[in-house]
Design brief:
Its EC number is 2.5.1.18. By secondary structure, this protein is α+β, with helices and mostly antiparallel strands. It folds into two domains: 80 residues, Glutaredoxin (3-Layer(aba) Sandwich), CATH 3.40.30; 106 residues, Glutathione S-transferase Yfyf (Class Pi), Chain A, domain 2 (Up-down Bundle), CATH 1.20.1050. It contains eight helices and four strands, in the order E-H-E-H-E-E-H-H-H-H-H-H. Helix 1 runs antiparallel to helix 6, helix 4 packs antiparallel against helix 5 and helix 5 packs across helix 7.
Length: 203
Amino acid sequence: MVNYKLTYFPVKALGEPIRFLLSYGGAEFEDDRFERENWPKIKPTMPFGQVPVLEIDGKKMHQSTAICRYLAKQYGLLGKDDWENLEIDAAVDTIHDLRTKIASYAYESHAEAKEAKYEPLVKETIPYYLERLDAQVKRNGGYLVGGKLTWADLVFVALLDYLNFMAKFDIIEKYGNLKALKEKVLAVPKIKAWVDKRPQSDA
């Protein structure tokens, strides 16, 4: 049996897609959550000084998207061919583009600059991305790619709490296809079991 240990802050954020994938695969894993005040002493022990880090039989790997892609290969959540895998990669990268744009607002330290960023984010940027993602799900039979569940769907739904936390509202409320996708992913028995038992956090 493979031994997994995920090291991350005590939040969902970038760790949650990995947790969703491990849960989907039925893997037992150590969910190592550390408080932020302990980060300075943990950081030097992490590859490239960043988290999340997944240890696989004692070998540490960083970069959350690379980890998710690896786990997707283990658990049958890739596309049926190279083209679908390209579509999945593009969807995941697009989701992270949206995350980065929301984070630019959320982590802005200057109050006036932060206030100035909010209206364009809410009225332009978020709708721009979500309208297109919603249409993509509609075209693909209720999923992001290929008419079936892939790791792109898990990444999107796993990140939603974090995106909503940063944006300060439910960003998919107006997008029926994305809401239905969220419901389908959260209804997967092993993912539902994880969500029911996971530690509570806003982000």
